[in-house]
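Key idea: predict the complex, not the pieces.
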Amino acid sequence: MIMQKWRATRRLLRYSPKSLFDPRSNPNSEHSVSRSASGFAHCVDGEKYHPREFPPYIEHKKERSLWNTTERGLERTSRIQYRYFGSLASKIQRNPSFSTLNSDDINYFKSILGEKNVIEDDDTLLFANTDWMRKYKGSSKLLLQPRSTQEVSQVLKYCNSRRLAVVPQGGNTGLVGGSVPVFDEVIINVGSMNKIISFDQVSGVLVCEAGCILENLVSFLDNEGFIMPLDLGSKGSCQIGGNVSTNAGGLRLVRYGSLHGSVLGIEAVLANGDVLDMLGTLRKDNTGYALKHLFIGSEGSLGIVTKVSILTPPKLSSVNIAFLACKDYFSCQKLLFEAKRRLGEILSAFEFLDNESLNLVLHHLEGVRNPLPPSMHNFYVLIETTGSDESYDKEKLEAFLLRSMEAGLISDGVLAQDINQASSFWRIREGVAEALMKEGAVYKYDLSLPVEKLYNLVEEMRTRIGNSAKVIGFGHLGDGNLHLNISTPQYNDMILAQIEPFVYEWTSKHRGSISAEHGLGLMKANEIFYSKSHETVQLMASIKKLMDPNGILNPYKVLPHSIISYC
Amino acid sequence: MKIMVAVKRVVDYAVKIRVKTDKTGVETQNVKMSMNPFCEIALEEALRIKEAGIASEVIAVSMGPANCIDTLRTGLAMGADRAIHVEATGPLYPLSVAKLFKALVQLENPGLLILGKQAIDDDCNQTGQMVAGLLGWPQGTFASKVVLDKEKQVATVDREVDGGLETLCMDLPAVITTDLRLNQPRYATLPNIMKAKSKVIKKYTPEDLKVEIKSDLEVVQVTEPPKRKAGVIVSSVDELIDKLKNEAHVI
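Result:
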């Protein structure tokens, strides 16, 4: 009953004409803006704020001449403000150096792209302005759908000359608000550029346009006997250009490595419209600086990726998957250690989820059942192997599992006997994010941490938050990547204050990454110092200035606002 | 009472099958093979009956070339007590399979023979019915619910038929073929996989069982169904009516 009322309110609030966007207070909670403001005052008084507990990098930053003594006090309070609200938009201002759209601009775009691909219709714009988590909402008035690299180049050249800010967009499945406008940036959606250009059956090199949906590429490659080197839950909607721009990780990274290794070439368009053709299909090419890496993971802030050439692994016939239960986190770690040794070259995925994650999935998702009834265990591990010989792999996996069981590492487990059962195991692991969305509001953190310490964060967070919210942990244990999620019925600034900056400070203390694979986007733009040194970030800012002097590409994101200055 | 369950090794249900270029059949090289889904349901039902105390032993049976052993191992890992493999190369059509089952039933004397209603590779839906005919046993096919009465030695079977559900009551021994909604098969747990390694798989040949395999059928050709034509987006209701009238001839 309450849930329904909350949902109805949420729907109302989402469609109410709010200026700018309000991440926390609307659309996801019933608290009004004013309440949050008073909450801020609450923070300054009641929050445990220890200046000396700053992670090493921020300490460093304080000493820089960037901050003079008078500003430091102000900066501190404004910094609390940022973290308290978790995201910046309600506090950042629209950059006044960006122009606003006028009818001449619209006409020009129509002349290049055609009437159909210049969209000003409210309903379509609403979808393009809102991210998947329904947490960030921009107010762009224009969506462009170029059909070729040439059109992207012309559009960007024009926007650069007019100083119109743009947001490159693909499948819009990002989780850190990087794919939607903050204010009225023009959305350039490459979804219409979805052709597969070529595929070499001997080398496995696939060349395609950035708007190809990942699942479509997987189906195409399936026919040819190959697979994509990455696999993620959003494969039905995400596009390869976005995957590359965010250096997406996913479920198979432990076997096929990151996109920095599998992407052989990129064609990108720079802010001034120049087309950078680095679309090589060579496995080895040591001629000059490897600039393609700049575009992998820079989240559209250095250029718009228009074509990708990627090395695809051959599809191996024997896939086996086991769903296992462990009694404690230490066993999960040891299991990973053993798996890497005993399964070696056939290991293709190693995922874990805790008891609470499984409960959520069983509760919210249709047609999902617990593979290991009747008791609930503390931790669950999913191990997948991919190889070329069915009986050999099965024997190897069975031997490893039985051995681990005898050693006490596994308390119970099941082995999938057919593809249907295998899909049901993956449904459980891939369904956690969906189940979280159905449960209510969720604070999502994606952290890289040393494997031994990984789960300690979940336990500490649980103690810290107590009964007011549900804390769950799951993720790619094989890569040391924890997805920490805190679920509450509604977004609540008090709970957010408990989470941030504690979670970033904890991660920084253990020299982890505050964003393992999701990227910085808007959500963590100002938190980069928790994982990168001041000098490193300065160089990033210099490169950004060099490649995008007007700062029109995906502004307000990735790099901290204090570092980026527009003249 | 013993229960005998038939299990068949088929191309995995989730695989996108392709027809061989010479049109003699479906491509099975390098393709994932698994237990027929209806056979899984049959085995699950047998295991549940055993767990309820009504049966003492579950025997899994498979017929075909050497790799049937994989499917039998799965059956043993699910919980069957022992397995029988009837080794035969060459195609086995339902009538041959039914005759082989008749011979096995006369050897083992089970109280119940459970099969899947059909195999997903040939979709014949004949073997269960034929065995019942050869043995002179009652049959409850397309079972969506099975209730056994131990004292009266009677089985009550709900059958899924076109008009709805039909309930039959039959004396044991009987033949039951299983339909989709009967149960949800269990997963093979690691402890059971471990136990399965020491369970017995007995091998027979058709000669041992004194059955002659001759097929009255010959597969002439296997082709894909014709591809569906792409749809057309019409621009107005008038155009739709025109197309329905003049092209599709439905109004």
